[in-house]
Design goal:
The protein has eight helices and two strands, in the order ββαααααααα. It is an all-alpha fold. The protein has a single domain, classed as Serine Threonine Protein Phosphatase 5, Tetratricopeptide repeat (Alpha Horseshoe), CATH 1.25.40. A two-stranded antiparallel ribbon has the order 1-2. β1 and β2 form a beta hairpin. The two termini are 21 Å apart.
């Protein structure tokens, strides 16, 4: 995921409803106004509608995964114009119609907007997650990336640090902090965070 010309570590879509991460190289992981999410219809409250809605959400996430798999690379930030950001955002919006506030849909929608270099829309997604759960480390890390993409390095560092306060071995945040420190000219400190990233990544494999 690109931010200020740097490759940063965010998250990528899985085959199910769980969203995880997406690294590459010296990592530090934005489209117009996003459509408003419609409220779930009253019909969704009918008997059996809950399971039907869950099945629909699972199928939509599966379709998102298929569109990702159709690409030659696994990093949206490296896919260029061939990556169907708008199509995937459309699928995620369908999920949010069924389940307003779905954390994984919001997180991945934010990542899609970052891929489009629309950091403001991305921040809206991550802020929605953090409003519900201020301790969501992925959302904190991804918010830092979006802020960094806006040139707000000092503010971005605060959110990376918050993520690391909650999980000091969180690889994505460790690498993103290393990139930010490198950009600030703090090379020795950056190397320490790269070493911490390597150690943390090895234990999570």
């Amino acid at each position: 995921m690109q931010a200020n010309g740097k490759t940063m570590t965010a998250a990528k879509v899985p085959k199910t409803a769980k969203v995880s991460k997406a690294p590459r190289t010296s990592k530090v992981t934005g489209a117009s106004q996003a459509p408003k999410v419609a409220k779930a219809s009253k019909a969704s409250k009918a008997p059996g509608a809950g399971k039907a809605n869950k099945d629909s959400v699972d199928l939509l996430f599966l379709e998102v995964g298929k569109r990702m798999d159709a690409l030659s690379g696994d990093d949206p930030g490296n896919a260029g114009e061939t990556f169907d950001y708008a199509g995937i955002i459309g699928l995620l919006d369908q999920i949010l119609v069924i389940e307003p506030g779905n954390r994984n849909a919001l997180n991945y929608k934010g990542i899609m907007y970052m891929g489009m270099q629309d950091q403001e829309q991305a921040l809206q997604c991550f802020n929605a997650i953090l409003k519900a759960n201020p301790g969501d480390t992925e959302a904190l890390n991804n918010k830092a990336i979006a802020l960094y993409g806006q040139g707000k390095a000092a503010e971005a560092m605060k959110y990376v640090d918050k993520a690391l306060e909650l999980d000091r071995r969180y690889p994505d945040a460790l690498m993103n902090k290393a990139v930010m420190l490198h950009d600030l000219g703090k090379l020795e400190e950056a190397r320490l965070y790269v070493a911490r990233y390597n150690a943390a990544s090895a234990t999570r494999q």
